[in-house]
Amino acid sequence: MSYISPSKTNFTVGLQYRGILEVLLFSAPITASCCVLLFINGTMLHILRSKAVFCETACYVLLYNLLFSDTIQMVLSQLLYLLSAFRIRLTYPVCGFLIMLANLTTGISPLTLVVMSLERYVAVCYPLRHASIITIGNTALAIIIVWAVSSLNVFIRLILLLNFQFEDLESLQIKDFCSNAALLLGPMSDHYDKAYTGVIFVFAGVAVTCSYIGVMIAARSASTDKASARKVRSTLLLHLIQLGLSLSSTIHDPLVTEISKVLDRVTILRIRSILYVSMMLLPRCLSPLIYVYGLRDQTIRPVLMYHLCCHQKRSQ
């Protein structure tokens, strides 16, 4: 009969208690912050659908699409973070559903930024043709294409995942936390993931950069509105920053996976919390709200402040 001393038992219980406290210490404020940010995003989505000027203007329709996908991505990221923090392991089918939905929304942001950049480029370089080119119908078509491309990516990932021989596994339960890296079960899936991510972000980066250069060239023309061109240049530059923030989220899972191989659980939780906030949470909420349009746009800003301040009367 094995004998376990009370001191060892107390030490083990103490470690488990400390682990629970660490989880609560990090997850509680992060979850609270995420809820606040989701409320702000939800408010923005409500505003963009509540007034005709927002529903009938291409840039606001595109902003709604960007916010909508980022909000879904934020919810999924927070759910996956809590599951990993509390060490809740999922089965491959459940994890696959969550990750495929996350992949669907992840690809929306860079592609939508491309369309938004092109819209701004046309507004400055072809102001007389802007109304005939950037119509609501064409904007809706562009959004459909964006979702179709992202959906095709998910479909290909699903085919690659189903080709894996799951019957060779001892159990359908994932050994580690649910993430995109956990579903890259073969070399083909890994190669496709890297290739798709690289192509999308290189394409988006080149498109936004070319739009920025085109606006800079047009700004030198005497017939161009200097103030408008300067504002568009700032917006396109912020689009590039947002692309960089979105790109950082793609290295989050591989980075956490490598760190988990060499560090203890408590240290992993601390580092994962910092990486999650900096790479996943903040880029998804601050980019569209502050860096792009939200607080810089004088049409949205007073309405947003009105809703966030509990419908208090705005100062004239």
From TrEMBL:
Residues 40-291 form the G-protein coupled receptors family 1 profile domain. GO terms for molecular function: G protein-coupled receptor activity; odorant binding; olfactory receptor activity. It is found in: Membrane. Keywords: Membrane, Transmembrane, Transmembrane helix. It comes from the Eukaryota. GO terms for cellular component: membrane. Its main location: membrane. The chain crosses the membrane at residues 20-40, 61-84, 90-118, 139-162, 195-215, 275-295. Pfam families: 7tm_1 (PF00001). This is Olfactory receptor-like protein I9-like. The lineage of its organism: Eukaryota, Metazoa, Chordata, Craniata, Vertebrata.
